[in-house]
Amino acid sequence: MTNELIAITILWGFVFIYSIMATMDFGAGFWSMIYINRKKTRATNIANRYLSPTWEVTNTFIVALVVAVYSLFPKAAYTLGTILLVPGSMILLLLAVRSAFLVFSNIATEYKKPLTYVSGITGILIPGLLISVLPVAHGAFIEYEGGHPSLNLQKLFTSPNEYAFIGFAISSTLFLSSLLLADYSKTSNEMEAYKVYLRDCRILGPISLLMAFAIMLTLRAETPWLYTRMMDDLPLLFVSLGFFLIGGISLFLPSFSNKEERGMPRIAVIAVTIQYFIASYVYGKAHLPYMVYPNVTIQSGFTDPNSFMAVFITYIAGFAILFPGFIYFWRLFMHDKKYLRQKSS
Amino acid sequence: MDNLLIARSLFGTTMAFHIIFATIGVGLPLMILTAELLYQKTKDLDYVVMAKRWTKTFAVLLGVGIPTGTIAGVQLSLLWPGFMEVIGRVMPLPFQIEIYAFFIEALFMSIYVYAAERIAPWMRVISLTLVALGALASAVLITNVHAFQGTPAGFRYENGKFLDINPWEAFFNPSFFVTAGHVALSAYVVGAFVVASVAAFKMMRNKYGSRVYLFHQKALMVSLVLGGIFSFLTAINGHESAQYLHEYQPEKLAAAEGLFETQSHAPLAIGGITDRETQTIKGAIEIPWLLSFLAGNSFDTVVVGLNDFPEELWPPLFIHTLFNAMVGIGSLLILISLVGIVWKKFMKKDRFPKWFLWVLVASGPLAVIAIECGWIFACTGRQPWVIYRVLATADSVTSATNLGVLFLLFFSVYALLGITVVAVLLYFFRKNTELDDIQKAEKGA
Ligand code: HDD
Ligand code: HEM
Ligand code: HEM
């Protein structure tokens, strides 16, 4: 592999990890708002139990992602920084309000409801804007004046493709997070909450799938170069669809451990994650070598080789150091029965 | 206003807001750690209560510090794409390593707060130490980028091209250690005096000798001792920072001191307003020869004046005032902690006079003002360069227009967050009084 390919793979890895974690994070915030009045099912508690310790860690991934872009592909960062000023600022503003109010809602208990509403609603808008980076990078909305790129916002926000992406981001955020929360509540023995989240994912799964089709359809009309390249990997797209179906079916089959209960959320989580992995691989592969079509490629955007080596080494050293920390964290909050099955809070 | 000016104001506002939470976020963990350790030593439950209440404060402040930091990090690319392109190419390491510091802080902060009852006491202390180290490392690393802006190294710059790039040499640029040391030490100053402010205020509000009064008196003494040590170290190190300016950015030092003519035996001007027309400082107190001595440890040191540089490369002259304010506050803080400690520990007086408590109340906000002055001095004093003598600020700004609306939006969100965070803290500590916490701790023990 060339250095450029290694670098873009690292970047893609960050995007993938962040999108799963962010989905979980923003989705959990939204569900904790939706079920705030239904004390009995404890669905809100489950969402909060996941959310409270994890949002900071998730947020760090978005910073890591931005830093990875400018240290691996500084030239691409120049173009992206210039064209994303408005959507990027919108994301930042929403993110600031969302994170702060999330923390406040856990502290000012008497005002929990209004504070949770603010953080839930601002949070669910963020994935829609985040994903807009993709259609923007497809190049059709970028204009060049005297060599300076700029984003035509009007063209962006009247494009069906953009709305298909937004719809997909929001529906799949809700789908994946309800799936993960279903699994989390089952592990925590909260069967009432489990039923609620199971129902939600049964509804949202098909909607996400429809949105994915909508993306492909609008892509064919608006960004044919990308569409045809993705279609070159049609077999992989079918494999991806197959995993989605496995995930869907496993939500209806009886559970292994308890024949009375329906659904095997753990299998669904794994199958759907694999599905996303394959689909985003196909998308990413079709996108290469362009980072911003057609002017910035991974070769033209790439950093200095000396800097790349140095950064690459810090990645390896950093992850070696952090790995035990992540494991410890995971054991304490995802795996510890005492934490998961607590009755208070 | 032109685009460049709005971009500068917008970024400056973001930084000025973030820095309040970030600096306290570096300083407070050290205070919490000190309280935890004092408890291990004395078994006095008051220290546990302090650690607990400061942790709560810290967790709330993180709720603003983290998103505003995220804004700062992303805004660098959005507003200064030309700058970040160079940084990405030459100086990516501090940002990269900083990510690990953020992760350590975030992971162990959550563990310390949400898993406190499930982990062993020694693990609590380790988690807290890692939080404090993570915060310190974030500050040191981000400051390294700022140090690089003033003393760039690790590349050759010819005909607009960056050649022979050595990212580690860039990382260990000449002013890294001095600057990072100054930021770290001054953050501990802020952490200590913010605590001192609150404690002094609460002492005035409670009856002399009551349980709550004594609780806050303990907190005050801890912060005066730490604050005294760190403000002394900050001043020493600040002196060294000034010597670095003398060596590496002479026009910045000249503007900071309002010195126009190059000379040996240069005087130090304190206070006053620099006047461009008459090339004097109006209303300043001048101490002969001192500037030469401060800059190079000898009275014959030749200090370069502004007139040796073309006027369009002069930094703005008001940085003289910012510099004075920072140094003035720094000296005052040393004095305050000395007076407090001598009064209590050596003269064995049992209560502070009221006026002194008021001075203590002011000390926290003053420390924050010193930080703000120091940063605005350092960043604005670098103008017109974003990377000293390599890249002009005007050449690195975004080509996008209409930043005005964004400026208003960001400003409103900072105002909203600033007001709510204060309201939430006040609400929380009014509901959960010191007395409740003390009684809870005593029952639990
Ligand atoms: C509590 C805060 C605080 C206090 C009491 C002081 N400083 Fe400071 N100073 C800072 C907080 C700060 C800062 C905000 O952290 C800065 C901004 C940039 C930097 O590196 O540190 C800074 C910058 C800064 C610089 C500029 C560095 C540059 O432009 O690259 C100099 C020369 C000094 N300081 C010198 C001093 C001296 C002689 C002090 C004597 C008491 C002093 N500072 C007290
Ligand atoms: C944290 C406290 C900080 C404050 C209050 C602060 C303040 C400011 C202000 C007021 C400006 C506008 C200067 C002008 O145009 O006159 C500015 C510019 C800038 N600062 Fe800082 N700054 C801080 C820290 C940093 C750090 C740590 C970095 C390094 C990453 C940094 C990098 C920049 C850059 C890139 C600009 C824009 C270009 C320029 O004006 O030179 N700042 N800052
Ligand atoms: C010297 C001034 C600065 C100091 C001392 C500082 C320190 C910190 C600290 C301690 C945190 C952790 C949150 C907290 O405790 O409140 C933080 C968060 C953050 N800071 Fe700053 N910072 C400074 C300037 C900057 C600048 C210039 C940037 C932009 C490049 C930046 C980017 C960030 C980011 C992205 C976060 C959020 C990290 C996360 O998501 O976990 N900071 N900063």
Automatic annotation (TrEMBL), chain A:
It comes from the Bacteria. It is a multi-pass membrane protein. Keywords: Cell membrane, Membrane, Transmembrane, Transmembrane helix. One of its GO terms (cellular component) is plasma membrane. It is found in: Cell membrane. The chain crosses the membrane at residues 6-36, 57-73, 79-104, 116-142, 162-182, 203-221, 236-256, 268-288, 308-333. Pfam families: Cyt_bd_oxida_II. InterPro entries: Cyt-d_oxidase_su2. Belongs to the cytochrome ubiquinol oxidase subunit 2 family. This is Cytochrome D ubiquinol oxidase subunit II.
Automatic annotation (TrEMBL), chain B:
GO terms for molecular function: electron transfer activity; heme binding; metal ion binding; oxidoreductase activity, acting on diphenols and related substances as donors, oxygen as acceptor. This is Cytochrome D ubiquinol oxidase subunit I. Its main location: membrane. The keyword Iron applies. It is found in: Cell membrane. Keywords: Cell membrane, Electron transport, Heme, Iron, Membrane, Metal-binding, Transmembrane, Transmembrane helix, Transport. Belongs to the cytochrome ubiquinol oxidase subunit 1 family. InterPro entries: Cyt-d_ubiquinol_oxidase_su_1. GO terms for cellular component: cytochrome complex; plasma membrane. GO terms for biological process: aerobic electron transport chain. The keyword Translocase does not apply. The chain crosses the membrane at residues 15-38, 58-79, 99-116, 128-148, 176-201, 213-236, 317-343, 355-378, 405-429. PANTHER family: CYTOCHROME BD MENAQUINOL OXIDASE SUBUNIT I-RELATED, CYTOCHROME D UBIQUINOL OXIDASE. It holds the Pfam family Cyt_bd_oxida_I. Signal peptide: none annotated. It is a multi-pass membrane protein.
